[in-house]
Design goal:
CATH class: Alpha Beta
Helix content: 10-25%
Radius of gyration: 13 Å
Number of domains: 1
Strand content: 15-25%
Shape: globular
Length: about 120
């Protein structure tokens, strides 16, 4: 498990659709997410995921960790799509666990991988 250092890594929101959509909502001054949430997001409401400081699957060869995401089904911590390794997405594909939540301080947004929707 490689620990993240604050400010390490450079985000790439072009390939990080969840982060890009979240930032669009914030920039538009919205405080709520779309009303058309999917069954996965309804079944897995936002919760306190703590403040992890490491991606559970990262190695030094994976490059810097940009942001962390928590699986809402089992609590696994993975790095976001802005990180080169994209461990959160890989874990969701491997396990079939559909929903992640931002593990960044002050953020409670969630992302459903199968339906590609922010909640």
């Amino acid at each position: 498990m490689l620990k993240r250092k604050r400010g390490q890594g450079r985000e790439d929101v072009r390939r990080d659709k969840p982060l890009r959509e979240f930032r669009q909502y914030v920039a538009a001054g919205r405080s709520t997410y779309p009303a058309n949430v999917c069954e996965h997001l309804v079944a897995m409401p936002a919760r306190d995921v703590g403040t992890p400081d490491a991606c559970e699957d990262h190695t030094e060869a994976d490059g810097p960790i940009v942001y962390l995401r928590a699986c809402l089904e089992c609590g696994h911590i993975g790095c976001c799509d802005s990180s080169a390794a994209r461990h959160a997405k890989a874990y969701a594909r491997e396990t079939g666990h559909p929903v992640i939540q931002s593990a960044e301080v002050g953020e409670t947004w969630r992302w459903c991988y199968p339906d590609e929707i922010l909640g």
